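Q: Convert this sequence to structure tokens.
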Amino acid sequence: MEEDDSDDSEVGRGDFVETDEESGGEDECVTLEPQRLARPLEGTQAQPDRSAEDDANVRTAQVQREGAERQLRYTPHIVTFPGAAGKPSGMSGSQNNMYASGIPTANNPYAPFSSRIDWELARWAKLRGPGSMALTELLQIPEVPERLGLSFYTADELNEIVDKRLPGCPRFVRHEVLIGNEVCEVFYRDIIACVRAIFGDPDFTPYLVFAPEKHYTDARKTQRMYHDMHTGRWWWATQEEVERKKPGATIIPIIISSDKTQLTLFRNKTAYPVYMTIGNIPKEIRRKPSSRAYILLAYLPTTKLERVSNKAARRRMIANLYHACMKKVLQPLESTGISGLSVVTGNGTTYRAHPIFACFVGDYPEQILVTLGYTGKCACCKISHKNLGDHAPEIAADLRDLTAILDILDSFDTRPEDFLKSCAEAGIKPVIDPFWINLPYTHIFRSITPDVLHQLYQGIIKHLVAWLIEVYGAAEIDARCRRLPPNHHIRIFGNGISTLSKVTGHEHDQLCRILLALVLDMPPLESTISPAPVVRCVRAILDFLYLAQYPIHTDDTLALLDEALARFHADKQVFIDLGIREGFNLPKLHFALHYSQSIRLFGTTDNFNTEYTERLHIDFTKDAYRATNRKDEFTQMTKWLERREKMHRHAQFVEWRLVQCGAPPEPRSLKWSPPGLDLGRRLHLAKHPSVMGVTVEHVVTKYGARFFREALARFITLTNEPGISRARLEEAIWNIHLPFRKVSVWHRIKFVQQDPLTLKFKTADSIHAQPIRTDSRQKEVPGRFDTALVNEGSGGITGITGYHVGRVRVVFSLPKAARSILFPHEHSVPTHLAYVEWYTKPRSQPEPNHRLYKISRLVDERGDPICSIVPVKDIRQSVHLFPRFGASAPTEWTSFNVLDKCRTFYINPFSSKFMYRTLY
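A:
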């Protein structure tokens, strides 16, 4: 059941100017926990009075955020690039027809395999099955191949079919590089063949983008919108440069990523893969590993040159080796980026394409290696190491002078004796021939993209958590972690966070969702230092983190991003005053200044997150290594990858033959939706209840719905008589007779969202309302009753106005016979209802320092909870609450009882990215 609820002569320099003509108090308990901060006497907490100025500032920020969020949902006003840019140059046969020409298909859609079972077993063996030896042993069982009608009897015979009878994919070639006295191997593919393979993939044909666009929030073109790569300024400006020389071009932005990865735990075996994708594919497809929008371009040498004793010389040689290999791989782009080449999409449309190196995706060491920089400095701009901690947007906007650096690199041929000195003065490593030196339309210092995983989660957030633990003590921080209520989006760190080691990006993400709760209402840090700046710093960094990950931006939201970073810099001095830091010269913190500039150029950060390529290591490197015999492994790994790619391509072809019957793919006509905002969700309940018949007495006692009868009577009366007076209402509810003893109960409400491209549904949120139970080991599991945001009738898509927080105790439906008796004149009574205990309504604006809404349990004069029956369809989403711990978390509180023990809470806007975008 579901309820919907520059100058053209400077080709190669990459400098450009984009034209924009159109822009117009509990007793102490005995505990085994470590000693924590003593709870101060009442009134000693450093909670500064809330002034009118504070309220005004918060209100201003709230209005700005509300306006910026509203614009994100607008259907954009689109300005297309004028002229013939991105237009097709002709037609040819579709990719599937071309593929079929290489296979003697006859009437067999599975050819060269003899039958469906022959093909299915082969696909399982190469994509999912065991190793070659195990497959051969299986096939050597008497009569197995004969009974199944297989065309192969051993793994080697299957490999021969794949290698010789399936049309090819881009092949790897092996190349030797001599450096010092060591011979290194690099395995790489022809990048042009890889570009053609991705661009011509039939699965991508309906979604490819061929020309840049300017997206605005309205027809007046006052606010630019940025999301996919074609909406950024780089593509438009580069298109202008190319059109001056070669009109009618289709730019293919090349996105390159490189990163070393560990293959073994004990032998220290590593691989150095290079991945490639293109910006014409929408990011919603590109970021999913299952879409296969990335291709493994090369395996670079991983030598450490241990025979070279001089460390400086060793580092220079490794840098030169990297660039020499990358230059070999990317060299075809030097000519084709200018002259263009013919490429064909999956449906046979031909374009004159210009593949141009656009972006490099990598962590900080890779960025430094690519840009010839030195560790401890910015990879992009001229700022000195000692000034990295300054909030200096004007310096960050001044990138390194590419022309001057190219002149220095060219001087190696004319003035080799001055080369080392010139490089040192320019702050670059003396690499003779970096791979990007001749790439057209490329500015390498502009091409470095934000790295949310390493710069924010495993950089700034990692530092911030360490500082907070040092400020407040591990014991208190860990105690608060253990006492947060559960939620669908929240991980409870039962052992705290101070002892975590090798913290992953996902764990840092979970930490960020609760980080602010760990510093709220703390006592004075020292006699003269207020904790308020610490709270403001945490809030500012979290705002920056969440805003930086928006899947769509406008000029206004980018202003909010920069403002959040400015707020952190305004209060960061508190960590120096406390002796936690001596300075903030952290390259990852500094790079945050480049985020808004990069988003304007290349689109939002989810276009380039290294989290995607970290996932690719499993498919393209680790799994490949496990398939080898550990001897000459890279030769075996590349062959293993080629065979897998052939099987994937043939599976695509077989599906086309069977399902589409030869018809070329047609573009889908989908209504425009903000990419990745996910504001549209559907409420979903299981078709059958969790418990078919629960007595009213058990609803009251086991589910804690103490006033279930009274609340239901009130709901019945108000539904039948909406205009009844309060006095008559209180009298009428005692005359209601409930003609049933049992109700059907659901223990979970789900919210699902639909992928706009695949149209598949997945669970995005859930609310639990389940009493104490025993698990399969007869161990008692505490009950869980989550809190939710309930629409009072006037709530919008975003914002707190019109919503009320309540705790869901039971989700139920009345017997059908009882509904007709209780609601004789109503034909639209909701089938599914929820018993909710209310919290106070939040103030119209949040608190000034942490900017959270404060609420308390809503009780009557006797201390009993105020509760209601509401239609389940009025529940908007789950909501996570931060308990108001005070100066020290009470020892008797646990994650399972804190919602009962604590009276005052703060609404957590960081429980999910969806929550952050909808609650402000």
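The first strand starts at residue 2 and ends at 3.
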